[in-house]
TrEMBL record:
GO terms for cellular component: cytosol; endoplasmic reticulum membrane; ER to Golgi transport vesicle membrane; Golgi membrane; late endosome membrane; SNARE complex. Its main location: membrane. It is a single-pass type IV membrane protein; Single-pass membrane protein. PANTHER family: VESICLE TRANSPORT THROUGH INTERACTION WITH T-SNARES HOMOLOG 1A, VESICLE TRANSPORT V-SNARE PROTEIN VTI1-RELATED. It is found in: Endomembrane system; Golgi apparatus membrane. GO terms for molecular function: SNAP receptor activity; SNARE binding. Coiled coil: none annotated. GO terms for biological process: Golgi to vacuole transport; intra-Golgi vesicle-mediated transport; intracellular protein transport; macroautophagy; retrograde transport, endosome to Golgi; vesicle fusion with Golgi apparatus. Pfam families: V-SNARE (PF05008), V-SNARE_C (PF12352). It comes from the Eukaryota. This is Vesicle transport through interaction with t-SNAREs homolog 1A. It comes from Fregetta grallaria. Keywords: Coiled coil, Golgi apparatus, Membrane, Protein transport, Transmembrane, Transmembrane helix, Transport.
Length: 162
């Protein structure tokens, strides 16, 4: 029983080595190779076979093999995540290359955003100053209307006396 499991472990080791090699070669892979479909199928098959073997092992020695299976699953999960990250990083590089973006694009965008933020702040200050002037002008106009109203009353009283 355990010899079958060890055989599957060797297959799994070869598979993980192949995946690790492909992670480094992502820029050179094409089409279906980049998607890793065949590797995912082989990984699933290898892990399933190992799990079946673990189920057939007597309960007293099953614990050791179960813990090994958990570590293999974790290792495969990490490899899949690394493979996906490398594919994403490569696709970002290709996109930047196609769009003509260079490595400084984020720095350029940051500088552009800072410039725009400064312009907005200056515009906001100008608008606030303009608003204050409008409020002051309104107050002065109101005072002038009150003065004119008082003057009119005085003129009317003077006319009535005359």
């Amino acid at each position: 029983m355990s010899s079958d499991f060890e055989s599957y472990e060797q297959d799994f080791a070869v598979l993980t080595a192949e995946i690790t090699g492909r992670i480094g070669k992502v820029p050179k892979l094409v089409g279906g190779e980049r998607r890793g479909g065949l590797l995912a199928w082989r990984r699933g098959e290898a892990l399933e076979q190992m799990e079946l073997e673990v189920r057939e092992i007597p309960p007293q020695s099953r614990g050791m093999y179960s813990s090994r299976m958990r570590s293999y699953k974790q290792e495969m999960g990490k490899l899949e995540a690394d493979f996906k990250r490398s594919r994403i990083a490569y696709s970002d590089e290709v996109r930047n290359e196609l769009l003509g973006d260079d490595g400084n694009s984020s720095e350029n965008q940051r500088a552009h955003l800072l410039d725009n933020t400064e312009r907005l702040e200056r515009s906001s200050r100008r608008l606030e100053a303009g608003y204050q002037i409008a409020v002051e002008t309104e107050q002065i106009g109101q005072e002038m209307l009150e003065n004119l109203s008082h003057d009119r009353e005085k003129i009317q009283r003077a006319r009535e006396r005359v």
